[in-house]
Design brief:
With 421 residues, the chain is an alpha/beta fold. It contains 17 helices and eleven strands. Helix content is 44%, strand content 15%. The strands form two sheets. A seven-stranded mixed sheet has the order 7-6-5-8-9-11-10, sandwiched between helices.
């Protein structure tokens, strides 16, 4: 009888819990905090849990190929065991086949061990081949573990490029950091972490070795922020002494970056509809040594009249489908695509609310972390057509395949004298 390692046992339990709809990042963070795992086990646990979630459709296609029992009729315990085993066999080169098979078999109930063992060993005997469908959309779905409906949408939006985008979501593991230049320069940060200075965003670095990152975060030397998000704040052009309003601010990264750009001088108003998330912003600002940040609960669709027409810079980082960050949050791609249809209406209302804060000559930036044109260009074009006192300055979409960042949209607008003035 094989002994199951704590990492695999924890991953198995997490996958069963997430069957109930729990987000992967929340489940992983909770397990890492509560479970007694060694650093090595934590790394393996995290990789297995995220990996199975990321490759779910591909793994289920393999199960369908090698199992006589349809996936939908397999018990949850056996299915979780199979997914874990297949993921290790297919994608974890350093894990011996016998360990992946034997420990996965041990995870499931006794009466299902023979079935799980048979499927996994058949997969090994077939040289771990997963057959791809002939239909182009079905092929994309199985190869990149993306639901068919989403494959159809991306193909509609980007044609053949859709496959390059999906492939880029599985890119190299790296972390991007926004440097707190009130305490350290980007050059010093890059040198201390053996990282690289971003070619896209000022005062941002990327690192592949994560050692030392957490310590620097605790000291307020930097914080995690993708280069695309850093570029978004850079596009705002915040200056010392100004009034900046962040309308959908939690968890606070863009607020922090703006306050740093302002050299901690002026006023930064950080608003969010979720009161329970405001502490993330306050605590983060304190850690970074930012004293100009003030937080308040506010629905962006119902702006604060006290700030109307007063802000130099306003950011509307709108709630979105998140289809640009699938590589970091694999759960997103499994959401019902029907939910995406309601977002542009909400985003338009949020953007209209944010615009009320901008003074004449001031800057308004609308951003999302999605690659859906209806949530991006569609919303901005609609806003500009209805608000002639705003003019377009620039509009850009960043892509994971070419820019090597999150999929991200940034639209910069300027408020001019209204036609009636």
């Amino acid at each position: 009888m094989a002994e199951v390692t704590p990492a695999r046992a924890s991953a198995f339990r997490s996958l069963l819990k997430m069957k109930c709809g729990k987000y992967t990042n929340l489940e992983v963070n909770t397990t890492l905090q509560r479970a007694s795992l060694t650093p090595e086990d934590k790394a393996l646990y995290t990789r297995l849990t995220y990996g199975v979630t990321e490759r779910l459709i591909t793994l289920d296609a393999a199960i369908s190929q090698y199992s006589s029992t349809p996936v939908e009729k397999i018990s949850e315990e056996a299915l979780a065991s199979l997914r874990l085993g297949l993921y290790q066999l297919k994608y974890c080169d350093r894990i011996p086949d016998h360990a992946a098979v034997s420990e996965s078999v041990e995870l499931c109930p006794k009466k299902q061990k023979g079935f799980v063992n048979a499927v996994l060993r058949a997969f090994v005997r077939a040289d771990k081949e997963i057959k791809l469908p002939d239909n182009p959309v079905d092929r994309l779905s199985v190869l990149y573990s993306v639901p068919k409906e989403l494959c159809e949408l991306f193909t509609e939006w980007y044609g053949e490029r859709a496959e390059k985008i999906f492939k880029a979501f599985f890119g190299e593991e790296k972390i991007s950091l926004r440097v707190n230049t009130l305490k350290i320069t980007a050059q010093q940060a890059a040198q201390s972490l053996s990282g690289k200075i971003s070619e896209i965003a000022e005062n941002s670095i990327t690192v592949n070795d994560f050692s030392g990152v957490a310590e620097g975060i605790e000291k307020g030397l930097w914080f995690v922020q993708d280069e695309a998000s850093s570029l978004c704040v850079q596009t705002l052009g915040c200056k010392p002494g100004e009034l900046f309003v962040d309308t959908c601010a939690a968890p606070g990264g863009k607020t922090f970056a703006a306050a740093i750009d302002m050299e901690n001088r002026g006023r930064v108003v950080s608003l969010d509809i979720h009161k329970n998330k405001l502490s993330l912003i306050s605590n983060g600002a304190k850690k970074l040594g930012l004293t100009v940040v003030e937080t308040s609960e506010r629905d962006a669709r119902e702006p604060d009249p006290d700030l109307f027409g007063k802000a130099d810079r306003v950011l509307c980082d709108a709630p979105c489908s998140g289809l640009g960050v699938i590589g970091k949050k694999p759960d997103i791609k499994y959401k019902d695509t029907a939910d995406i249809e309601r977002l542009p209406k909400i985003q338009s209302a949020v953007l209209s609310g944010a615009a009320r804060y901008v003074k004449v000559g001031g800057t308004l930036v609308y951003s999302t972390c999605t690659l859906n044109p209806l949530e991006n260009e569609g919303v901005c074009e609609g806003f500009l057509s209805e608000n002639p006192d705003f003019e377009l300055c620039s509009m850009r979409t960043l892509f994971p395949d070419t820019d090597k960042t999150d999929g991200f949209f940034i639209c910069k607008m300027r408020k001019r004298e209204s036609c009636g003035q």
